Amino acid sequence: MRPTEFAYHRAETIEHALALLAEHGEDGRPISGGQSLVPMMNLRLARPAHLVDVNHLDMARIEEDADTIRIGALVRHETYLTHPLIARHLPAMLEAVHWIGHPTIRRNGSIGGSLCHADPTAELAAMAVLHDARIVLASTGGRREVAAVDFLKGAYVTDVQPGELLVEVIFPKPTGPHVGTFDEVGERLGDFAIGSFGVRLEHDGTRVRRLATVCGGARMVPIRMTELEAGAAGQPLSALDPVAFGQKVTAMVSPSGDFRASAEYRRNLIGELASRTLQRARDQAMGMK
Amino acid sequence: MKPENPRHLGARIQRLEDPRLLSGRARYIDDIRPNNCLHLKFVRSQVAHAKLLEVDTSMVEDMFPGTIVFTGKDTGALSMKAHQDYPEMQYAEQPLLATDRVRFVGEPIAAVLAEDAYQAEDAAEMVFPDFDFLPVIATMEQAQDPALPPLFDGWKSNVWVERQMAGGDLAAARAGAAHVIRRTYRNQRQTGVPMEGRGVIAEYDQSMRVLTVWSSTQMPHLVRTYIAEELGLPESRIRVIAPDVGGGFGVKGQVFGEEVLLAWCAMKTGRPVKWIEDRRENLLASIHARDHLHTLEAYVSAEGRLLGLWADITVDVGAYSTYPFTAAGDPGMAAKVMPGPYDFQAYEATFRGLASNKCPLGTYRGVARPSAVFSQERLMDDIAREIGMDPIEFRLKNIIREFPYRNVLGFTYDPGSYEESLLRMRDLLQDDIAAAKASRTDPKTRIGVGVACFIEQTAHGTPDFTRRRVPIETGYVAARIEMMPDGEVLIDLGLQSHGQGMETTMAQVAADALGVTPDRVFVRHGDTSAPYSVGTWGSRGGPLGGGAVHVAATEIGTKLKLIAANLLQASPEHVELADNRAFLRDRPETGVDIGYVARSALRNIDRLPEGMSPGLAAEASVDGPKDGTYSNAVHAAVVEIDVPTGKMKIRRFVVVEDCGTIINPLVVDGQVRGGVVQGIGSALCEHFVYDEEGQPLTTSFADYLMPQAPEMPMIEVHHIETPTPLTPLGAKGLGEGGAIGPPAALANAVTNALDFEVRETPLTASAIWHMAQDAKGV
Ligand SMILES: Cc1cc2nc3c(=O)[nH]c(=O)nc-3n(C[C@H](O)[C@H](O)[C@H](O)COP(=O)(O)OP(=O)(O)OC[C@H]3O[C@@H](n4cnc5c(N)ncnc54)[C@H](O)[C@@H]3O)c2cc1C
């Protein structure tokens, strides 16, 4: 459990980091919080010859403009817990972040690292998908934006190319009144989830304007239940039926089972969490809590 | 028996070793850094079962010149031999490095020695074993399938051993039974996880012909004995030191091939050699535990009296037999302890240990008893459910009340508080039992209460090992004590303290006999320079180690009194030793400092009584009583289940325990709580999983789930003290008990909550959800 030999480079600016990453190509790897990369290196599952330390770059801010919240790649998970912009615009994220690991992990781990690591049930990946976030990637060749659903390609597989750096994640602001909820079940507190579900509900006080969902643990990447979302749009809030919704989700997902949890359990669990998160979102929207 | 009017024995004092341990000043194996040391990395098998055709090391020589690689060709016939002398037992050895066959993923194939640990790890990747794959035995069914070839040449089957134990007339019990209740219970395979893994350093001094081995072990003397025998060295020229050991839990209570191999490497290379186990090796290839399958059949009278018990016990023991408790250890122990704390006189058990392509089973806190108690106590609940009795009532009806009690296998139980502890527990649970009943109709949240009542044979000694015919020849624990001229005390204790707090408890015991305060007693342990003892395991340290310290210290105390009497011009019966003084019982102000007395014995010996020889040292050993001494306890769990998700929360965990004389209640509480947490791990999450190819799936802490602080309830510990007449202090063993009860108590609580019989562990959310689905009325 010792890493293979590597060279360490401390990048001072984004340009510097991009130049280092361009120079080392496939052999180079950014490191931010190190919470996922270092264990992978110790297990020799990752063997970067050059580590580019991006922790000193100017991309640790949460900023707002008219339509979006922009979260810098280095923002640490714990930041969201006390940040007013998150509470106001991305309430589901506030709930989701509580479930990430332990205090030390949340202190060190970054959104750039979490998204690029792409664990199938990572909460921040789920949040990016739920909110239709766009991922900004930079390289010496310039910048490009990728939608979260296209960015996450599979378990631990993303659209990041050698030489690229994730610099920020753009979350569109919800328009009008909205609520958001998230729930998950893992074997122990801080474990990656067996199943999770998140809901974002935009409404006008009586009707659903827009429902967005995200489901973790059903596939190797977080998925949206687009059919159910479409069906809810325009419905009266009071017509939302959490139990029926959960049952539909159970019927629609087909996770695989392993020694930890059977496929049948996972399907039902995801449905149950869907039902619970929708119920809470609906009740909040209707001013019941 | 318990000494009269103790001052320090029984006192709730903080552990004297804690300042060192808690401030990062302990010295663990990896903190020892000999000069000019070679670092060893093992190349371990990545396949479960194969012929080993060749080990290609040529790349290492090319890429890492100077690196040394040893394979089975070099170590040849050197091996681990652990045979229990049963006629039915099949014999097999594990070579220190695989020679012609590998039998589990993790088995050592080669040792790579380099100038630093990183280089050793890099070079180890360049060793390429060539295999010819063999069919894998990955399940109990496969191990018992006569069509599959045995793991060892010359074997008849893949059964290490199959034997019977019996007592009384089972046919009569069956014939007289109104109820016959048969159930099968299963505990998963797990491993034991000390925070610090294993590690060994060996150094051979050629001029003195002395081999020194530092090992993170619970049994330095046995390591010395085994190395001496295997490498043909005199024991006088081997010293084994166990420095601070960061947890053992029985895992480090075996002699490992790695220890012998490091010694061999040091002699071969003439340089110190160091190996520090990494976590993956620790999970994969130290020892595994549990993996029991029991079928029980109980014969019960119409009035709810247990008349007899039939048991069939199968344990997957893995690829090799471990030293010194062997492949027969776990299954034999389960069969032996299954009768438990209940009064019945007909029993028949068959036990077998199966060979498979998995890591060998060894001893882990509780050793077979967590599994035996799981089955026994699940069965008690299932019987109660079936005959319509309250589970605690049913137990009370059958619990042993009169002592000494001769059990169905002929073991004699010394006095305990079986009934009293159960009654105490029932009182403590009243509100929870009511809450559980009230939740019975709730479709979403269910509360359940479960108890587990058990006894634990502790303080095993020579008679027990002789009876079991294990490779250990002896079971005594010894201590040598010396008082210095200033009244300070030095104890060389044959045991090793790795969390048991012996630097405190042994000091308390000695302090009473010597009239000093415990802070003046320095307890050295974990070094073969101390008198021979087979190690710290099996809940023997308190009763036997404490006993040896008491006997030796009392001998010195008697001499101190004689000297003090002479100094004070009084008769020795009137002298008392306490508070670092020797004084007259009736006139406490007349006395001398204990150091003055000691000085008279060691330096100013002109002050000694006529004819007395100088010196204040004594050595004593205490062996285990014939059948050991039996601790007892009741554990109870109160759980809350979120039925739709299967998530379970432990609301309360209560222990009522009786370990005889308590040396230090704080230490007892700590031992019990730590054990309970491990027992909760066994019940809920610790699971070492192999796939059908014998490939391990849980080789890091991301997949092998340990119990964590956020899930732990407050653990309440209540004490009852029934001293035993069989040990010098009246103490019984208590180190393991905490880990024994939780699987049964938790499974009974889930059974109660869901009204559904739990048959196996681990109780994961998925497993609980499935049970709730299968249960009626949930
Ligand atoms: C015990 C434990 C429990 C955990 N539990 C959870 C959990 O419940 N939920 C959860 O979501 N996570 C969990 N994590 C993971 C944690 O959230 C990590 O912080 C996160 O996955 C990675 O973030 P990091 O900043 O540490 O990235 P690093 O480990 O530094 O890097 C991770 C990967 O991202 C790449 N990378 C990093 N920054 C950039 C960048 N700016 N551009 C391009 N590539 C980049 C690295 O090269 C590497 O491949 C857990 C981790 C541990 C150790």
From TrEMBL, chain A:
SUPFAM superfamilies: CO dehydrogenase flavoprotein C-terminal domain-like, FAD-binding/transporter-associated domain-like. It holds the Pfam family FAD_binding_5. InterPro entries: CO_DH_flav_C, CO_DH_flav_C_dom_sf, Diverse_Substr_Oxidored, FAD-bd_PCMH, FAD-bd_PCMH-like_sf, FAD-bd_PCMH_sub1, FAD-bd_PCMH_sub2, Mopterin_DH_FAD-bd. SMART domains: CO_deh_flav_C. Residues 1-176 form the FAD-binding PCMH-type domain. GO terms for molecular function: FAD binding; oxidoreductase activity. Transmembrane segments: none annotated. Keywords: FAD, Flavoprotein, Oxidoreductase. This is Carbon-monoxide dehydrogenase medium subunit.
Automatic annotation (TrEMBL), chain B:
Keywords: Molybdenum, Oxidoreductase. Residues 23-135 form the Aldehyde oxidase/xanthine dehydrogenase a/b hammerhead domain. Its cofactor is Mo-molybdopterin cytosine dinucleotide. One of its GO terms (molecular function) is oxidoreductase activity. Gene3D superfamilies: Aldehyde oxidase/xanthine dehydrogenase, a/b hammerhead, Aldehyde oxidase/xanthine dehydrogenase, molybdopterin binding domain. InterPro entries: Ald_Oxase/Xan_DH_a/b (IPR000674), Ald_Oxase/Xan_DH_a/b_sf (IPR036856), Ald_Oxase/xanthine_DH-like (IPR016208), AldOxase/xan_DH_MoCoBD1 (IPR008274), AldOxase/xan_DH_MoCoBD2 (IPR046867), AldOxase/xan_DH_Mopterin-bd_sf (IPR037165). Pfam families: Ald_Xan_dh_C, MoCoBD_1, MoCoBD_2. It comes from the Bacteria. This is Carbon-monoxide dehydrogenase large subunit. It comes from Paracoccus sulfuroxidans. The lineage of its organism: Bacteria, Pseudomonadati, Pseudomonadota, Alphaproteobacteria, Rhodobacterales.
